[in-house]
Amino acid sequence: MGKLIKKFGMMNLKYFFKLIALFCLLANSELLYKNLSEEQLVRLNYLSDNIRCPKCSYGNVSSSNAPISKDIKNEIATLIKDGYSDDEIFELMKNRYGNYILLNSGEDKMPIYLIPLIALIISILAVTTYTIKKSK
Amino acid sequence: MKRLLFLIFLGFFAGFIYFFSLSLSKPKLSDITLQEGKMLPSIQELVDLNGDIIDERSLSNGKVLLNVWASWCITCLVEHPFLSKLSKGEDLIIIGINYKDDLSKAKNYLDENGDPYKFSIFDYKGYYALKLGVTGAPETFLVIDGKIVKHRIGEINQKVWNDEFKVFF
Asked: What is the chain A residue with the closest CA to B128?
């Protein structure tokens, strides 16, 4: 390896790595969503951050590698290009996959946070009344 | 007081056990909404594995079982014998949706394992499946006169058929 570096020189090696970087960029060019303006790309990111992957369920469309997520992201890009608003796209996805698909729905989650809080309050009350009574 | 605390604790514990067993006993397949009650999406230029254009009416005429399959899908291979058996028995048409597959591999798959489908829609990019609400393979839709009456995500077998699909026949 050392001989090889000497033979080609450090400069050539740098060009070699630059070439590899260029190839990586070309291989990922399908992810760049051509024909979308800067503002539309921001919207695409916002929408795919807030729509759940229907197959894998652990995360949103933009963080998932499932083929269905890629398809949905492409579809969102097409819908944005066709002039659909964010709400219309959310509605369309909701109609197809249900409320579950929306990550920012904000509903049905209150009990999850309330249950431990209620349990904590009850246990604090129980322990304090018990200790007060015992000390008397 | 001690007894009361003990009873409260016992109550909580029993409650937890109850909810835990309740959630365990429910078969949870998917959280996403199934496509039941919806009409088949309309899409132009559907082609079969031979490249022939499919008449959309053939999908919405009578009882049609739409089955999403692919040669790369292991579970599809598992349910394939059941579909073959079904194609000989019940009064229904089975149509395949070949999902994101290589054409030659798909044809090979049917040559090797038999072809229970009247024909298969060649959905190379998964575009039709996406409109249909498919999340992967295998999935099966029972369509009666263009309306989806049953949607199953995952394998179908004799038990699933008897439990969920048989009522429509």
From this structure: A71
